[in-house]
Amino acid sequence: MVDLVSVHRFMARLKFCANLSWLFTELPDFSQRIRAAAAAGFRAVEAAWLYDCELKELQKAREEAGVEVVLINSPPGNTKAGELGLAAVPGKEEDFKQGLAVAVKYAKALDCRRIHLMAGRVPAGSHRAAVVKEMEAVFVQNLRYAADVLSEEGITGLIEPINTRITDHRYFLDSPHQAADILEKVGKSNIRLQMDVFHWQIMDGNLTQNIQKYLPLIGHVQIAQVPGRNEPDSDGEINYSYLFNLLEELKYQGYVGCEYKPLGSTQEGLGWITDYWARSK
User: Which residue out of 46, 68, 160, 231 is catalytically annotated?
Assistant: First the structure.
């Protein structure tokens, strides 16, 4: 007799990927972190910026470890000048296009099918309300350009709201509602929403209804506890057992990126996911 409960849980099992910009940082380079993630049981990894790494070495590590690279970020721009993405920054359109070309090069080499197109910050000294319309227009224009470039490679572009209360007070895109409005104006099916639960909780809360409402737009999920941005089972505001069940019930098919700061070593903090994997067998 078929165990329908077991079949349902197997079909609904969430797919997790290790964010190598946050996990396994005990190791100095990304190639080592790729292998460590695979040894810990991850079948997929993501990272913010890999552009200082030797691409051939990354390819070799990925192939030997047998993991999928599922997400990278577009280049941040000139971080020494305070840049953190360029897609919505007026006057940086050509820089954004050049950075996109670099991101596509890395994504193709690593067989990565998602690129987070970072919006960037409100210019220093500017009031958000005074520049929001101009920045939104630039963002929409750049996202439409990116959509056409990425569609030729079978790559999905993602936009991620980042909270402006704790993490980055000047980041332009800071709520799922703003992101959904921009996606509607872009009107391209291969530009989607990246839901980082950490940022959504800080900015808006109401996670259940927001997830239900925006799930059709979501192309990637990231997790961390609030407020410390540590392991999802650490003390904090979010009940991740509930949220995982919710994503399963909603039949979310994408990846869940583990973008958190371990309280101790990465390996010591992986009990929550080994328990999940054990329950899901």
Answer: 160
Q: Mean pLDDT, to the nearest integer, of 234-250?
A: 98
Q: Write down the pTM of the prediction.
A: 0.94
Evaluate whether 38 touches 65 at the Cβ level (below 8 Å). yes
Instruction: Check if 259 is active-site.
Output: yes
Q: Using one digit for the tens of pLDDT, what is the confidence trace for 39-66?
A: 999 999 999 999 999 999 999 999 999 9
Tens digit of pLDDT for each residue in 162-178?
A: 999 999 999 999 999 99
Active-site entry in 46, 68, 231, 259: 259
